[in-house]
């Protein structure tokens, strides 16, 4: 067991790596933005989560920047109030990880990391053409969190683009068919297996497999 005292006595890099791994598998996405001077940006985010279905909302946490470091994604979202969320496939993983490097404002990660900008009609943020699952979001709420200096972004889902074969009859998605990866910590990308699905749970019997 690692208690609080033991946790904070660990080497900082080891502690950060451990804590980042504790939530297990998480979505890993590329967030596409553009600033008011039409410079595009795309960065990998591993803190995206479901907020609600009605209205359709998705949240993400943007970490605080080290002193003197720019936060292009956050600044662009606050300025334009629009951004895209793009799933990452195994073929995209290495390039997606490269977007976490500290590129300057005048360098587009689309160009530097080998991704193609795609613009959906009537939406003002760039999408990642290589991604099979693309979401367009508008900023709905922004909360700077005083507890650790992170930034909570909640967006309303305005656009969903995905292949027909990935959508099941009941509305759920077959992520494996799109070869989408899940993330662990800050540097690991894992393939998704078929998994198990269960029917709606009731108190009087074990849920059945779908």
Could you name the key traits of this structure?
17% helix; Pnp Oxidase, Chain A; 32% strand; seven-stranded antiparallel beta sheet; 210 residues; 5 helices; alpha+beta; three-stranded antiparallel beta sheet
What does this structure look like?
The strands form three sheets. The chain has a seven-stranded antiparallel sheet with strand order 3-2-6-9-10-5-4. The chain has a single domain, classed as Electron Transport, Fmn-binding Protein, Chain A (Pnp Oxidase, Chain A, Roll), CATH 2.30.110. Helix content is 17%, strand content 32%. The chain is globular. The protein has 210 residues and is α+β, with helices and mostly antiparallel strands.
Overall SS class: alpha+beta
Could you name the CATH homologous superfamily? Electron Transport, Fmn-binding Protein, Chain A
Largest sheet: number of strands, sense, barrel closure: 7 strands, antiparallel
**CATH architecture assignment name:** Roll
Tally of individual domains: 1
Describe the structure concisely for a colleague.
This protein is an alpha+beta fold and 210 residues long. It has helices at 4-9, 12-21, 72-80, 93-98, 109-112; strands at residues 26-27, 29-34, 40-45, 48-53, 56-62, 82-87, 117-118, 127-128, 134-144, 151-161, 181-184, 188-191.
